[in-house]
Amino acid sequence: MSGATDAGEGLIERLVSLARSAGADAADAVLIRSTAVGVQVRQGKTEELERSESSDVGLRVFVGGRSAIVSATSLDPSRFEALAEQAIAMARVVPEDRWAGLCDASAPGIFDAAGLELADPTEPDMAALVTRAGIAEAAALAVTGVANSLGASASFGRTEVVLATSRGFTGRYARTSHSVSAAVLAGSGTTMQRDYDGHSVVFLEDLDDPATIGHSAGERAVARMHPTKPKTGRMPVVYDPRVSGSLLGHLAGAINGAAVARGTSFLKDRMGARILREGLHVTDDPRRRRGLRSRPFDGEGVATSALVLVEDGILRSWVLDGRSARQLGLATNGHASRGPSSPPGPSITNLSLSPGALTPAELMADIREGLYITEMMGSAVNGITGDYSRGASGFMIRDGALAEPVAEITVAGNLLPMLAEMTPANDLTFRRGTDAPTIRIDGLTVAGA
């Protein structure tokens, strides 16, 4: 908590005050400023250099049980009064929403992100980004078997969020990102295969060596050459950490408070029931130091804290904002997210599944024939029934070891038994925002040849 204000805080506090003076019973406003710098290199030549800057402000007003949102890209204070009047006029003609309103859990005061280390003060110049991308591409092209480059990129971004409410809350934080990636092709003609690798971090000092990223992309592409299709059948499926987080994503969608309140979640009646194996935990931690999605407060001005969603395999909490919490007769847990032109909604931050005890090799040692997935595409997941079907590629597992590459296959099942059958390995790393270790699920249907 800080006692200082900046120009952005003063601007949106004034906008909220004008809305109240114009007749709003309550109001909040958000300011989002973004800077993005990026380059792309292909075949050693710089193909793209891009820099963008934007500032967007959004005002939400409440008139009785009615609300409206207006947004603008201009921060000209002389236009704020008209913006407030427009929002109030809109609110007076929309239907009432008995669940709408400012969140009661937001606290008055001025809040910032001190201690979370979310903003790297170093901004790289274009030359540094070009060099970084060039190193990644050169390392990828140096891998024997790589035939062509789809390009390597490097970028930097900085986003500042300022929120103020008529309840007296004001908060501000900034987050930076540094990233590098490479994508290449291996083989030729109909046997050509593509793969990639990349890394994103908050602080530049935590970024993987670009040469390591490039080399990994090249090796991944070469390993996928001459894929086959497995026979259709039921078998154990192992998800590489690059894709295992997608299972957590489906879980997060099912425990989103808005979906539960609408009755459109296959987990809506499972609170307090076992949904994962004993000993497993799923945690969302918006306070993780240097976390890709960390934040000191949510989109409604509620202070954030780590939230255990699944404890020892038992579902313990929904992901809630103020509106969904009211609908469910609960209290928000500080997981609202919003933009300048949209109302708050429940959202995850740094989501993770606890690791298991076995190494990835030990996890699949007893699999006589199975599938190891490294990439997924498309999605036919029914949030109401939990029915699951996704395209995939990767490798066959034979006698406990990775074997020939496979592609153009479909993996299907139902998420309720899939979640209950998940067995994680011990290789959890916090790398993607939604993170899970290698995961094994037995008895999925694999459709191939």
TrEMBL record:
<dbReference type="Pfam" id="PF01523">
    <property type="entry name" value="PmbA_TldD_1st"/>
</dbReference>
<dbReference type="Pfam" id="PF19290">
    <property type="entry name" value="PmbA_TldD_2nd"/>
</dbReference>
<feature type="region of interest" description="Disordered">
    <location>
        <begin position="331"/>
        <end position="353"/>
    </location>
</feature>
<dbReference type="InterPro" id="IPR035068">
    <property type="entry name" value="TldD/PmbA_N"/>
</dbReference>
<dbReference type="GO" id="GO:0006508">
    <property type="term" value="P:proteolysis"/>
</dbReference>
<dbReference type="GO" id="GO:0005829">
    <property type="term" value="C:cytosol"/>
</dbReference>
<dbReference type="Pfam" id="PF19289">
    <property type="entry name" value="PmbA_TldD_3rd"/>
</dbReference>
<comment type="similarity">
    <text>Belongs to the peptidase U62 family.</text>
</comment>
<feature type="domain" description="Metalloprotease TldD/E C-terminal">
    <location>
        <begin position="232"/>
        <end position="448"/>
    </location>
</feature>
<dbReference type="InterPro" id="IPR045569">
    <property type="entry name" value="Metalloprtase-TldD/E_C"/>
</dbReference>
<dbReference type="InterPro" id="IPR002510">
    <property type="entry name" value="Metalloprtase-TldD/E_N"/>
</dbReference>
<feature type="domain" description="Metalloprotease TldD/E N-terminal">
    <location>
        <begin position="27"/>
        <end position="91"/>
    </location>
</feature>
<dbReference type="InterPro" id="IPR045570">
    <property type="entry name" value="Metalloprtase-TldD/E_cen_dom"/>
</dbReference>
<feature type="domain" description="Metalloprotease TldD/E central">
    <location>
        <begin position="121"/>
        <end position="224"/>
    </location>
</feature>
<dbReference type="GO" id="GO:0008237">
    <property type="term" value="F:metallopeptidase activity"/>
</dbReference>
<protein>
    <submittedName>
        <fullName>TldD/PmbA family protein</fullName>
    </submittedName>
</protein>
<dbReference type="InterPro" id="IPR036059">
    <property type="entry name" value="TldD/PmbA_sf"/>
</dbReference>
<dbReference type="InterPro" id="IPR047657">
    <property type="entry name" value="PmbA"/>
</dbReference>
